[in-house]
C-alpha cells in the first residue's frame, strides 16, 4: 500500500520522517455515531477549510504541479511527493454527504491556488462510494446533489460565508465551520459556530466536538465549561 508523507506546520525530526497510510484505509467509527441517532438537531450546513483541516499541507507551498493520481486516494507531484487527505476525512465526508445525515457541505478556504485545490479535490476519491461505477470524487460532495459549493480565494472568511449564505439561503446560526486558524473565529460575529481543529485535522473526535459545540450554541444541550479543545492557536490561515 502506498505511503503518504505528512507535512507538518512545524515539523519535528520524527514528524518529517513519519508516514501514514493512504486515505483508502481511513478509519470509520465501529458503531453509528451517537450524534446521528440521538434525535437532537444537526447543522443544516457544515463548512470546511482545506489546508491543515482536510489535508496535512499548504496547497500553495507544498505541492509542485503538475499532479497525478498514483491511486484513487493518493496524489504525486512533480517532485515525487505524495499527498492525501487526513486519515479520517474520507469516511467523514462519505457519512456527512449521505442521505442519512441530510447535511449540506461547503468549502471556505483562503488558499491562493484555487485551480490547484479544485484539481486535488477532483483527483482524490472517496472509498466505498460510486457514481456510474467509479469511486466518487471528493469534489462531488461539495458541488453535486446537496453540495453547497466551493469558496477558494484570498479574502476574509466572513466574505466566504456571505457568499455561501446567499447561495444556500441558510441562516448563519445553522452553519458549523471547521478550521485550523484562530483569526477565522471572526465568522462567529455573524452567528456561525466555528470549531478549531488541532494538528490531526478533521477527525471523528473533532467532528463530534464540533456538533456538540453547535448544539450548545443552539441551546439543545447544556453548555460545557469554558476553554478546552476550542482554544487551539492556529498558524497562517
From TrEMBL:
Residues 9-33 have a biased composition (Low complexity). One of its GO terms (molecular function) is acid phosphatase activity. Coiled coil: none annotated. It holds the Pfam family Acid_PPase. Residues 1-33 are annotated as: Disordered. This is Magnesium-dependent phosphatase 1. It comes from Triangularia setosa.
